[in-house]
Amino acid sequence: MTTTPTDPQSYTPPTRCLNWCVGGHQASFDDGNPVEVASRHESEDYGERLYGLANPVNGATVRPGVGGWTARLEQPDVIGWRRLALVRLDVDDYDYQHKPRRVVLNLTAGEARVLAAQLVALADAEDADLGMVKAARR
Ligand SMILES: [Zn+2]
Questions:
Q1: Which of these, 61, 42, 59, lies nearest to 50 by C-alpha position?
Q2: How far is the CA of 108 from the centre of ligand 1 (A)?
Q3: How far does the centroid of ligand 1 lie from the alpha carbon of residue 51, in Å?
Q4: Which SS3 state, helix, strand or coil, does residue 3 take?
Q5: Gap between the Cα atoms of 4 and 92, Å rounded
Q6: Does residue 32 sit in the same domain as residue 43?
Q7: pTM (two decimals)
Q8: At residue 2, does pLDDT exceed 90?
Q9: Is residue 12 predicted with pLDDT exceeding 80?
Q10: Does position 79 have pLDDT exceeding 60, yes or no?
Q11: Which of 77, 89, 95, 98 makes a 20 to 30 Å CA pair with 14?
């Protein structure tokens, strides 16, 4: 029989707080409290602010410098998904008309690794291109 994270028959309540959780739930488990007391595990938050960017030629605002992102590991509290921890990426900024916008992605560990690798590849490509521009100016 194949089980999926959404199969209620396959759900086993956690009996310990997860190693990356900053919620301090283990004492509650050790005291014999029900799993609902520690139904949501979260890691520490990582994140950055998005600073303002201006076009160096004409000074026009490229990015207004508000918003930012946070990333953390969460074990959602929806029954059946408790055993599947997801990386939560929460991004908020403002569009070119200064209207707020927000994107929340809940990624598996594999998806988070793929996204991270793609971001590094793009950043490396941009850095390499900037290096070529600097070399051409010499
Ligand atoms: Zn916990």
A1: 61
A2: 18
A3: 33
A4: coil
A5: 32
A6: yes
A7: 0.73
A8: no
A9: no
A10: no
A11: 89
pLDDT band at 49 (very low <50, low <70, confident <90, very high): very high
Task: Confirm if 136 and 115 have CB atoms less than 8 A apart.
Answer: no
Per 3-state DSSP, what percentage of the chain is helix, strand, and coil (rounded to 5)?
30, 25, 45
**112 CA distance to ligand 1 middle (Å):** 21
Ligand 1 centre from 46 Cα, in Å?
17
d(CA 102, ligand 1 centre) in Å: 27
Do 80 and 43 belong together in one domain? yes
The DSSP secondary structure of 33-67, one letter per residue, reads --GGGG--EE---EEEE---EE-TTT--EEE-S--
Largest CA distance in the chain: 70
Judge whether 45 and 23 are in contact, CB under 8 Å: no
Residue 106 CA, ligand 1 centroid: distance in Å: 18
Q: Are 67 and 94 in contact (CB under 8 A)?
A: yes
Q: How many domains does the chain have?
A: 2
| Residue 123 and residue 54 in contact, taking contact as beta carbons nearer than 8 Å | no
Give the residue numbers spanning the domain of 115.
Answer: 109-138
The residue type at 51: Y
